[in-house]
Model the fold of this input.
Amino acid sequence: MSERKPKRMLSGEQKYDLWVRMLTEQITPSQAAAEAGVDRSTISSLRKTARDGAITALTAARSGRRRSAKEVSETAKLQAEIDRLGNVIIEQAVELALLRGKASWG
Done:
């Protein structure tokens, strides 16, 4: 049975450097993993996080101002509440339709 290597933590700057070098095709994801001493899945996760972060930042920039982490968090909470209330309305509409339907029976 092989022993697990201790976890290697990369700094934000190291992650950014690897991401830029992969983006500019200076290194491949496999080379980046070997260079950093991490598993290839760590590099895949890094690429996804960097992509998602860039899209979020660019979307916020398009609105003319940057949103703080607090605003993003509050927006996510409000969207979750909207979704929850939408589901409640649907449930109540179904229940009302069933009750009205039963009332006409008899």
Notes: The longest helix spans residues 69-103. The chain has two domains: 9-66, 68-106. The chain has a mean pLDDT of 84.
